[in-house]
Amino acid sequence: MKYKRIQPIVKQQNRDLVKVEFKWDGEPPMPGQFFMLTLERLDIFLPRPFSVFDFQNGVLSFLIKPIGRFTNLIMNTDDFHIMGPLGNPAPFATSGIFVGGGIGVAPLHFHAKQTENFIFIAGSLTDDLRFFISDLEKRGRVIYTTEDGSYGVKGLATEPLEEILKEKREITVFACGPVPMLEKVKEITGGRNTYLYMEQVMGCGTGGCKGCAIKTTDGYKMVCSDGPVFNAVEVIFE
Amino acid sequence: MNKLHINIGGLGLKNPLLLASGVWDMDSPVEIETYGAVILKGVNLKGRKGNPPPRIYDIQCGVINSIGLENGGVDELNRKIEKIKGRTKLIANIFGSTIEEYRDVAERLKGIDGIEINVSCPNVKDSGIAFGRSPEYVEKITAQVKKVSDVPVFVKLTPDTDRLEDIALAAEKAGADAVVCANTYTGMVIDINTGKPILGGTTGGVSGPCIKPLTVYRVWKLRKILKIPIIASGGIASWQDVIEYIMAGANAVEIGSIIFRNLEAGREIISGLNKYLEEKNIHHILDIRGGVHDG
Fold first, then answer.
1. Could you say which of A175, B213, B217, B227 would form a disulfide bridge with A99 (CB–CB 3.0 to 4.6 Å)?
2. B62 contact A CB<8A
């Protein structure tokens, strides 16, 4: 774990998504892990957790959808503090199905690249994700879905999952995205061999403040220090 | 001579910078050796599961939290203390839902250098702030804890009261070795899309730079009436803030929320303080302390 001041080397915007890249000489991240980014300005006080979109040749990248006060400033900011890698690595699997909803594809992209055989389902409202994740098409099968059918398969990301599981019942499923999507994934698999990337507002990112609690069958657990990837069986949705 | 070494109620500290309760837990990667002392997360007798999520939220220039004093109870804390003993001075932060519980927790604690009585957490309904707004309860709790403790006892006050002076005097009368001024301010944030509170606990405690002037005022006010030392706590983000609090009358300070965004805040503050004292040719940090009493 390293904490330091850092400036991005590349910022790339396509439609409403931004990829930010940093040179990283600290400990290499594992799939599932995340970093905290802090802005210099005090009026955005808390650091924000970002999962790893990619890490190769010493370049660490994050895929971000500007939707809040912090993320909207990213294109105009060159001065960050970074801390990481944080959290626990995701469980290892040689093959898996990855189900990503919207910006939830970010950590799954990094994870899938380190998985021998994979099927990657990327659900979005438009074809915006493909610009950033098409490199996966050379490594495995990628299915794009849009709700209105304007790109790829018409429907939700969870629909192809249901089809695929009819044949590959023993395969591991990793999912990241909006809560209703995660609930649906859990419902489809019954929680079997299923791991969910969970999200929560964080304070410290290191297990100190007990701020990022989620409800589990074993009481409250912290996304930063117990997760961020949880066995679907233990996650309680409210 | 060490310009930062201080003594509070018999507790010698290498510097006046304490890490506030609630921001660090045993495994998190803060360099606690930097601090004169660390105050451990709040503990009661049997533990507490904490408040429903979301528990923390960014406000402009600060944080609102509703953690709810999640902890595993005093026996678990004793086991954890064994593993970190010797890294720096350790102060336990204790709370309870009865006067007797405060006393019992204090009695069972092992391996600590001081006790901070928490009568000021805004996030638990059955203890904390309810006692902290009553001078009578603060006096009773402090007296009971003092009776069973052989380490210095500090009382962490709530700023959310119009009886701050009475409450602080009650702590002093009951034998407190210092007061901590102050805990977070009760606040609330609302999601304008749903019309519902953002925090799972509905209300929360506000901390961070946005509260600093409010707490500086309270420290300054208490300095005029108390004989015992004051440990200031509220929105410190830099060494300049520490100087300001000491000028207001504090003997030491706690930092909290700032370490969420700056893991090295402690080290930066200590180095800033040393440089300031050197440049201004000040013999000892408490030489600049304001107020009508010298403590």
1. A175
2. yes
